[in-house]
Design goal:
By secondary structure, the protein is of the alpha+beta class. The chain has six helices and eleven strands.
């Protein structure tokens, strides 16, 4: 029987001698350069964060100027009507919007201050004003697009009778719709006017309308006149705190990008 051979044993491997531990050495020059780079990065970030709202403010200023309104967004002394200013003295925007009470189509009394907390575009007009009617389609389009819990469009109408107001709205927004006949006094009965209006505009209108009936032979209502208005249309952009931030004389294209940017500059504050 053959002798058993010893198995191969693993060969011992010599381990390298343990080296003494070395500390981390930082070059002062490298540390200084890194610090400078870090500070520059922080500065660039801060500059960027500062420039973003500044650029947005500049865009808003440009938009409101482009829309042709008297506004406070550019920091210039934009004078409001003395009738809107405390003590009746000339003043600059922003100024508090004078409160008023008007009536809706149901006869309910409504105050401007009821909308405090919302941004309001207040539009003054009248059914007999042709320019006002040409402005209504863009006003309605903008109100449809931007209307929300934060923004509302209110129109104050210098008219004595609601049928005249509804006819003017139909002429502006549904020009091909038929209108009811008038009675022997030249008036349109309100029930017939309501039926025609609902048929022409079944979804209603996206802005609110309140009546400001003129007195005597006046063309404009007392509320409208109290704001210093001598001709319509005119519009005021009022912020959530009830301050007039921008004022527009004559009609505007409210669906234009410049109008949207101007309105958004106050809505998004």
């Amino acid at each position: 029987m053959a002798d058993a051979k010893p198995k191969d044993l693993p060969v011992a491997t010599a381990l390298p001698a343990k080296q003494p531990a070395r500390g981390i050495v930082i070059d002062p020059v490298v540390m200084m350069v890194g610090g400078v780079v870090a500070l520059l990065g922080v500065g660039v970030l801060a500059l960027f964060l500062w420039m973003v709202p500044t650029a947005a403010a500049r865009e808003a200023m440009s938009a409101c100027r482009g829309l042709g309104g008297y506004n406070d967004l550019d920091g210039a002394p934009n004078h409001a009507s003395p009738l809107l200013c405390p003590g009746g003295q000339p003043c600059s925007l922003p100024v508090p919007a004078p409160d008023f009470t008007a009536v809706d189509i149901t006869g309910k009394q409504v105050k401007l201050s009821d909308f405090r907390g919302k941004v309001v575009l207040l539009n003054f007009w009248a059914s007999w004003c042709g320019v006002c009617k040409t402005e209504k389609p863009s006003l309605a389009g903008m109100a449809n697009e931007l209307g929300s819990d934060d923004f509302v469009v209110i129109t104050l109408v210098s008219d004595k009778k609601w049928p005249d107001v509804l006819v003017a709205v139909m002429e502006a927004l549904a020009p091909n719709a038929g209108q009811p006949g008038r009675d022997e006094n030249g008036d349109i009965p309100m029930p017939a006017m309501r039926a025609s209006f609902q048929q022409a505009l079944p979804e209603g209108i996206p802005f609110k309308a309140f009546l400001d009936p003129p007195q005597g032979d006046d063309n404009l209502g007392p509320i409208t006149q109290s704001w210093g208005i001598k001709a319509v249309p005119e519009s005021a952009l009022i912020d959530r705190r009830g301050n007039i931030r921008a004022y527009f004389v004559n009609k505007r294209d409210w669906e234009a990008p410049v109008a949207r940017t101007c309105l958004r500059s106050v809505i998004d504050e």
